[in-house]
Specification:
The protein has 147 residues and is α+β, with helices and mostly antiparallel strands. The chain contains four helices and four strands, in the order ββαββααα. The chain has helices at residues 57-64, 87-97, 113-124, 130-139, and strands at 13-24, 31-42, 72-77, 80-81. It binds adenosine-5'-triphosphate (ATP) and magnesium ion (MG). Adenosine-5'-triphosphate (ATP) is lined by residues 24-25, 31, 33, 51, 53-59. Adenosine-5'-triphosphate binds next to strand 2 and helix 1.
Length: 147
């Protein structure tokens, strides 16, 4: 997969991949899913990653979001270099700074809508700000739901 060269604007870069490669398997089953990909994701913008099936879109997302390891290169979220983090620090970074919307929602069926929204904060032992929670629920159109 190829992506345009980064703009290199440090202060507005939310996340950055630099020369990231990801190799699955070895020998005959070896697959180079990412081959030295460099890309900046800028703050306050929507970025779409497009490409044919198997071109490495999901792999790139997983590597840049700290969900998967990579074979080569570096990934930065804000000022934090993911390669320098231990497992626990990576977990905390994902919990506090990254939101995922998966194609398959990955909601917990035993929890209601509010409980699913606040789950990461519950795990972190923090209380959500009421105004923020209301805004989130209204923004995604869940205010009229049955919870
Ligand atoms: N866990 C894995 N083990 C081995 N190979 C994998 C694994 N995950 C992905 N691959 C391979 O890596 C390459 C990139 O896969 P990836 O899922 O990132 O593509 P994609 O662009 O997201 O495709 P799609 O549009 O179908 O979602 C493919 O060749 C795929 O077969
Ligand atoms: Mg995919």
């Amino acid at each position: 997969m190829t992506i345009s060269p980064s703009l290199g604007l440090k202060d507005i870069t939310a996340a950055r991949a630099a020369g990231v490669s990801k190799v699955y398997g070895e020998g005959e089953t070896r697959v180079v899913a990412l081959d030295r990909v460099s890309v900046d994701f800028r703050q306050g913008e929507f970025t779409a990653i497009m490409g044919p099936s198997g071109s490495g879109k999901s792999t790139l997302m997983h590597c840049v979001a700290g969900l998967d390891s990579f074979s080569e290169g570096s990934v930065r979220i804000g000022d934090v270099e993911l390669g320098t983090l231990k497992d626990k620090q990576l977990t905390q970074l994902r919990r506090d700074r990254i939101g995922f919307i998966f194609q398959a929602f990955n909601l917990l069926p035993t929890l209601n809508a509010i409980e699913n929204i606040t789950l990461p904060m519950d795990i972190a032992g923090r209380k959500p700000d009421e105004a923020w929670l209301r805004r989130v629920v209204e923004t995604v159109g869940l205010a009229e739901g049955r919870g």
